[in-house]
């Protein structure tokens, strides 16, 4: 009987919190969040057993129920709708009445309150939607932007904590040997920071080693790993064509592609009207390398194939003083942290001062909000590394039959953002990095990049 009463109390408390969130009743909501505790989660993250709604879901979804707007004439796809599309029968950017504006303001304050109390930004409901997915689908742009910003903060924090953990692990290795591999643990207590739902590969050496030792299935349409996950697919061809156009801005350039896969962009390089005079390819998987050899890539004029991981190959190229006019990056089974190390540590030593750099931008492409979050994370990390970036938006074809036999869809959104990067004309680095760069780039005395240290910046009054 006592257990029944406890269960009833838990359900009652849960519904009280969800009701206060949906009514945007901040006074009651704050009181309930402080007063109620739950054994399996924080009060701010409770979920309705039928809908899977958290308080964040409820606060955003309630805006649709309260607005007196005709229903949408056509449904927009979950996880991938555009904010500029027609939603609920009216454009998302249409003017709102004062009552509707007041509703949005109260909803925004409620969402801020929940996030400030530690609500998980990307919790999924029973329809596989995050709170941000609901805001995006309903066209509530300001609420959507709040959720995107919350995701950016969470991902930046997790990335920084990951860096600290790597430092701790390396220090422990020196004393006690290899640390336990905890990166694949999925259990999570309420006191721990939320794990990311953004689809990016886990950063583990074992993950990469497993991929490199696994059997691949290669066809004209796709490459699948032994778990039937898509490594690369032919629908990416237009993306690769446009990427080649963005990189090959003049004839006889020296280019490098990291991650051959199906060789789509390498074919584009070779067939381009600005065909490069020197074409380097870095590839690590034995099956792909064997396929390349069978297709004659090792004998092509001007092509040099590097057999191995970029982490091993690129430092050698830097030490040889090699530089490139264009670099493309598209690897598999690596983490965002690996990619960040690539553009912040390797590209600066390999890219010509006036060179171009791009990569396959698939981070978080399982849903629109994740894609938008990682665009902002990327922009901040790229800025810190000294790059300017602009994005060219491309339509992605409707993908249906392409996923037949594929274990996991790695693309679920409508538009691809093609990144086009170059060094900023002026960027500021700490003095130790400025001291290192001339030694790493000793063959580029004519560099037009103005490298200014933080100490020089303060002495000259730069801001």
TrEMBL record:
Region (Disordered): 68-101, 167-195
Main location, first listed in the record: cytoplasm
A molecular function GO annotation: protein arginine N5-methyltransferase activity
Biased composition (Polar residues): 73-97, 185-195
RMT2 domain: residues covered: 202-463
Keyword set includes S-adenosyl-L-methionine: yes
PROSITE patterns named among the record's database cross-references: SAM_RMT2
Keyword Cytoplasm found: yes
Keywords for this protein: Cytoplasm, Methyltransferase, Nucleus, S-adenosyl-L-methionine, Transferase
Family: Belongs to the class I-like SAM-binding methyltransferase superfamily. RMT2 methyltransferase family.
Quaternary structure and interacting proteins, as annotated: Monomer.
Name of the protein in its database record: Arginine N-methyltransferase 2
């Amino acid at each position: 009987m006592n257990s029944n009463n406890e269960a009833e109390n838990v359900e009652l408390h849960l519904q009280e919190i969800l009701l206060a969130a949906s009514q945007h009743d901040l006074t009651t909501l704050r009181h309930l969040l402080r007063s109620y505790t739950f054994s399996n989660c924080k009060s701010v993250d409770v979920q309705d057993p039928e809908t899977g709604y958290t308080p964040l879901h409820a606060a955003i979804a309630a805006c649709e129920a309260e607005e007196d707007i005709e229903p949408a004439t056509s449904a927009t796809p979950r996880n991938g709708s555009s904010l500029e599309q027609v939603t609920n029968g009216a454009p998302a950017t249409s003017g709102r009445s004062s009552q509707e504006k007041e509703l949005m303001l109260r909803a925004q304050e409620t969402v801020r309150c929940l996030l400030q109390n530690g609500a998980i930004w990307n919790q999924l409901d029973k329809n596989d939607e995050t709170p941000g997915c609901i805001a995006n689908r309903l066209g509530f742009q300001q609420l959507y932007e709040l959720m995107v910003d919350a995701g950016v903060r969470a991902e930046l924090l997790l990335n920084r904590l990951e860096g600290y953990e790597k430092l701790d692990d390396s220090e422990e290795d020196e004393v006690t040997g290899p640390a336990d591999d905890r990166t694949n643990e999925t259990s999570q207590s309420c006191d721990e920071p939320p794990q990311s739902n953004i689809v990016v590969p886990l950063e583990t050496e074992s993950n990469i080693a497993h991929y490199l030792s696994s059997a691949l299935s290669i066809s004209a349409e796709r490459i699948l790993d032994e778990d039937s996950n898509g490594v690369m697919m032919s629908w990416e061809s237009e993306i690769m064509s446009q990427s080649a156009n963005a990189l090959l801005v003049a004839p006889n350039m020296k280019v490098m592609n990291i991650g051959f896969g199906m060789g789509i962009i390498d074919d584009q390089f070779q067939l381009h009207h600005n065909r490069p005079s020197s074409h380097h390819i870095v590839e690590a998987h034995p099956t792909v390398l064997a396929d390349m050899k069978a297709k004659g890539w090792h004998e092509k004029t001007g092509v040099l194939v590097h057999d191995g991981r970029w982490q091993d190959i690129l430092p050698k190229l830097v030490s040889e003083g090699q530089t490139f006019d264009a670099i493309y990056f598209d690897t598999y089974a690596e983490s965002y942290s690996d990619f960040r190390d690539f553009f912040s540590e390797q590209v600066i030593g390999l890219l010509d001062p006036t060179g171009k750099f791009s990569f396959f931008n698939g981070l978080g492409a399982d849903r629109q909000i994740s894609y938008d979050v990682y665009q902002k994370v990327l922009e901040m990390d790229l800025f810190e590394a000294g790059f300017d970036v602009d994005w060219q938006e491309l339509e992605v074809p409707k993908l249906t039959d392409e996923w037949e036999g594929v274990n996991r869809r790695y693309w679920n959104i409508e538009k691809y953002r093609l990144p086009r990067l170059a060094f900023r004309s002026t960027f500021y680095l700490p003095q130790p990095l400025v001291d290192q760069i001339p030694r790493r780039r000793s063959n580029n005395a004519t560099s037009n990049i103005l490298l200014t240290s933080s100490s020089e910046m303060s002495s000259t009054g730069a801001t």
